[in-house]
């Protein structure tokens, strides 16, 4: 299949610093070799409220515009990019690994509520000190378990399923969280963090997040803040 790259691509995102779903979608476009125009709508602002309806049927980000078509929701964007622009290379060729990857991506997409609530993605934060509830600890343990299972299935010590796949994009905001908050992590998780954090695309996103002027107070946790 030859991808049609002549159609304009626009990815509508939230703040790079905080919008974990936007990061996932953008990484998929980058790993498919695309360079979409990125429209950032600063969340929790009157500007977001004023502009979101023109881009998004759900009033949420991310949304990928492909010419006059729109695809909303990070996982749908990932699958569409994979199908149209990446010759399906964003999932492993092996059927078993692909099924496992899809299950992990779905679990990330619908789960880990305690972690997502207590430890918001915050690209600018580094080693913040937090008090973890048992539910958050369970989410962290489950994520580390999944990463270990994926690596033992694929035999990879870099990306979870061998080559980069959608599941790595789904977990990228967890990597950012794990480096934003001071957490005890097993060695294999630290290695996965180091691999992701050396990635040029992720670093470019973090660099742009660091330049953003917006601060959302309720997303700024740590340094002794209670997370109960
Ligand atoms: N399931 C959606 C979740 C999208 C979502 O919750 N986006 C957040 C930003 S990360 C948002 O749009 N927040 C703005 C708001 O709710 O006003 C996806 O995977 O894309």
Automatic annotation (TrEMBL):
Residues 9-89 form the GST N-terminal domain. CDD domains: GST_C_3, GST_N_1. InterPro entries: Glutathione-S-Trfase_C_sf, Glutathione_S-Trfase_N, Thioredoxin-like_sf. This is Glutathione S-transferase family protein. It comes from Congregibacter brevis.
